[in-house]
Automatic annotation (TrEMBL):
Organism: Natrinema versiforme JCM 10478
Domain of life according to the entry: Archaea
Official protein name in the record: Metallo-beta-lactamase domain-containing protein
The protein's required cofactors: Zn(2+)
Stretches assigned to the Metallo-beta-lactamase domain: 13-167
Keyword set includes Metal-binding: yes
Alphabetically ordered keywords of this record: Hydrolase, Metal-binding, Zinc
Length: 192
């Protein structure tokens, strides 16, 4: 099961996805709210924190989560403070009950990862792709529009049109034709 713990939070934060099952993990920790209590209201323990990228709104609560649950954080770049273990491009990562492939998808930030499970039909898109053709900002440090387009295209080539759900770093998850939203993001990123 996948639950967005930041769904009703009225603060500047990213979405925070608790993935339960065989390996309970938190995908991003958010910022500016008590995510530890939110996790504890759902599960007794976590096995890891998985990071889509390390912008402040996605990792502001990282230290608190690591301290509270005694877990390590996994992300693309271990030279960044708080990232304990590297996840390589194309590496398999278990989130809950399913295997996901990690896709290095820079353009919004150099250490950005998306996670895709073909078996579950689920994509964690981070801040690369959002609903209705929106896409990640490229006006921040490390942002690059050409690279972002290449990353969206890479995800589009990898996912299946039968994709069941796309969980994004901000805004609602997409459960109705998420593949179409990824296609639209690829087109919109070229037009802006």
């Amino acid at each position: 099961m996948i639950t967005n713990l930041a769904r009703n939070v009225q603060a500047f934060t990213s979405n925070v996805f608790l993935v339960t099952g065989d390996r309970p993990v938190l995908v991003d920790t958010g910022a500016n709210f008590d995510v530890v209590d939110a996790v504890r209201s759902e599960v007794d323990d976590l096995e890891a924190v998985i990071l889509t990228h390390t912008h402040r709104d996605h990792v502001g609560n990282l230290a608190a989560v690591k301290d509270a649950f005694g877990v390590d954080a996994w992300g693309y770049d271990t030279s960044i403070e708080g990232v304990d273990h590297a996840i390589a491009d194309e590496e398999q990562v278990r989130l809950g009950d399913h295997e996901y492939v990690a896709l290095h998808t820079p353009g919004h930030k150099d250490d950005h990862l998306c996670f895709y499970s073909e078996g579950a039909g689920i994509l964690f898109a981070g801040d690369l792709i959002f609903q209705n053709g929106s896409f990640g900002r490229t006006d921040l440090e490390e942002g690059d529009r050409t690279t972002l387009i290449e990353s969206i295209d890479r995800v589009l080539e990898r996912i299946d049109p039968s994709l069941a759900a796309m969980h994004t770093g901000h805004g609602p998850s997409v459960t109705s034709d998420p593949y179409d939203h990824v296609e639209l993001s690829a087109r919109m990123a070229r037009q802006s």
